[in-house]
Write a structure and sequence with these properties.
Blueprint lengths: L12 E4 L6 H13 L3 H5 L2 E4 L10 H14 L4 E4 L3 H9 L23 H4 L12 H7 L6 E2 L4 E2 L8 H6 L7 H10 L6 E2 L2 E2 L1 E4 L2 E4 L6 H8 L2 H7 L17 H8 L2 H9 L4 E10 L2 E9 L10 H10 L8 H4 L9 H4 L3 E5 L5 E4 L2 E4 L11 E5 L3 E4 L6
Parallel strand pairs: 1-2, 2-3, 11-12, 12-14
Antiparallel strand pairs: 1-15, 4-5, 6-7, 8-9, 10-11, 13-14, 15-16
Helix pairs in contact: 4-6, 8-10
Length: 388
Amino acid sequence: MSDQNPQEVEKLVICIGDIHGYYKKLKTLWSNLKSKTNPIQFNNALIIFLGDYCDRGPETKRVIKFLLRLPIKYPDQTHVFLAGNHDLAFAGFVGVLPEPLNGLGFRNGWEEYAQSEEREGWYNGEGFENMHLQGRRWGGKIKVKFNSVKGVDYQGSIYDAAPTFLSYGVPHGSSESTRAMAQAGPALATSLGGIHLFRRNGEGHGPCQGAIDPLQYMSINFRPRLISQAMGKDGSARTQVGRGGEGTRTELMKAVPDDHKKFLADLVWVHEEDNVAIETAEGRKNCKLIAVHGGLQQGKPINEQLKLLKAKDTSISKVECLSGRKTIWDMPEELKASSTIVVSGHHGKLHIDDLRLIIDEGGGYRDKPVAAIILPYMKIVRDTDCEN
């Protein structure tokens, strides 16, 4: 098999669903994809990541580091990294989104959703004055603690961004988060805000066994200056430490490496690919493929949507094709008569309806798998799959 010419084997298109900070799941999924495909095909495949690399899971930093290495380790593969709504928001917070095409600045996009500012606790610290709406929502502190839609507590912000901050060694909310952890004391055992704590050791990061004092955890993982800001000389928590959110952005921008910022800045909002083979109930077809994080809207001309997505027009406060739900779930009527595959993640579901493919089985939940689909074979591979 290894003697085959790459031009003699069928090209694979592998679409990988939302990762949401789960490095170990990503690494295992990648190994499973390698083991379940022809090596020549795998090493020459088109790999489309469907977005949402950050938030919810504990290791966003390691996820992005893994993704950045792929073009070096697999130079014959083609890698496409789509922006998810979480990634756009992360990029907005650290200031790497392009300026709005209308020239009016990001502030112009706040008003439409201003009624949600208090409930969602939008970020209003250093640098918020010209920040994209989704960056403010991502870096803020939501007032409502329970996410009734998902049935879990929010992790810091409406985007569940606290684990992403922590993966870069910065507590979400800076002084306020630090103080809250200090007050929690040793009773804060093996989890924090719904995520597992990880202890550094000689072999990298491993799950903590049993209870761990949060101050011990912070002394290992966070900058000493941040700890000292929140603690008195006697080790007790101060009752007043600055305004909520101050310092958060500055610390995170220092902590996020430049190549990670460039990764976020370079994410594409849509990818089109011609002549993609797919097995259907009527047999094999060669189709056009459109990959976009959430999907395409009903009732709006497809060409107009694609033009907007290709331009990465940040004057739009909420990019429906990246963050919508019901409006982008189905295949648009305009495309139903054509041989066009629309593939996305985002929805927290694995859903296949003819040429409409939604590959997000995990949804950022700790106990659900990260999945991928291999075209043309329509084969689903998960991180939880056992090798045959």
